[in-house]
From TrEMBL:
Function statement: This is one of the proteins that binds to the 5S RNA in the ribosome where it forms part of the central protuberance.
Annotated Pfam families: Ribosomal_L25p, Ribosomal_TL5_C
Top-level division of the source organism's lineage: Bacteria
Domain Large ribosomal subunit protein bL25 L25: 8-94
TM region positions: none
Species, as recorded: Dongia mobilis
Protein name: Large ribosomal subunit protein bL25
Family according to the record: Belongs to the bacterial ribosomal protein bL25 family. CTC subfamily.
Gene behind the chain: rplY
Length: 233
């Protein structure tokens, strides 16, 4: 489970696009806290403080205590809007959570021990199929990350969710199949060698059959059978 981070906030009294623009002009980031069967709470955030959290890996799987006017709200980040030109943070959505809440959360995948993978040493290409995995869990059971150990993996190997160490209390949202998390693909050079070898093997296998079908060079053609069979004299 990831540690709970603290964020300070201030209340804002108005909603709407005009109020949000006024908040940004004042140097703050508008945000909202919703959920847990309570009324939404409109807040503003210090841009430097919230950006430090937003740009950390696994932000959407991080529990936050947002303190507003002496009251702490345990929340999970749900959405962040950015300016398409400046990448400035424009708005943040938080969901209130309690210990009994079941939530869907995307947890980042972290690869370990790349140097211990023989397949990578031979030039294999690491393909991270899923950079994040969606889990269903309670707030207290959110994994900080999912680690995939590459030790001993050869070219062509793949790691599926069934062989990944999933923390207790967390269940993959995809339950109907053993999906792939990472693979080690063959590099182009090895693929070319394999294709050439297959082609050569196919040619060699076809050659004897072709030779048996053709008559020997210089051999007399086979005599045609007599029409009507032998006649008695």
């Amino acid at each position: 489970m990831s540690a709970v981070q603290s964020v300070s906030a201030e209340l804002r009294d108005r909603a709407g696009k005009g109020a949000a623009r006024a908040t940004r002009r004042a140097g703050r980031v508008p945000a909202v806290i919703y959920g847990d069967k309570k009324e939404p709470t409109l807040i503003t955030l210090d841009p430097k403080e919230i950006d430090r959290h937003i740009h950390k890996k696994g932000f959407f799987a991080t529990l936050l205590d947002v303190e507003v006017g002496g009251t702490k709200h345990r929340v999970l980040p749900r959405d962040v809007q950015f300016d398409v030109v400046t990448d400035r943070t424009l708005h943040v959505d938080f969901q209130r959570v309690s210990k009994d809440t079941k939530i869907h959360v995307n947890v980042p995948v972290v690869v370990r021990n790349e140097a211990a993978a023989p397949g990578l040493k031979r030039g294999g290409v690491l393909n991270i199929v899923r950079h994040e995995i969606e889990f269903i869990c309670s707030p207290d059971s959110i994994p900080q990350m999912i680690e995939v150990d590459l030790t001993g993996l050869e070219v062509g190997a793949s790691v599926h969710i069934s062989s990944v160490n999933v923390p207790a209390g967390a269940t993959p949202a995809i339950r109907d199949r053993d999906f792939t998390v990472i693979t080690i693909a063959a590099p182009s050079a090895l693929k070319s060698e394999a294709e050439e070898a297959q082609s050569a093997a196919a040619t060699a296998a076809a050659a004897p059959a072709a030779g048996a079908a053709a008559p020997a060079k210089g051999a007399a053609p086979a005599a045609a059978p007599a029409k009507g069979g032998d006649k008695k004299k």
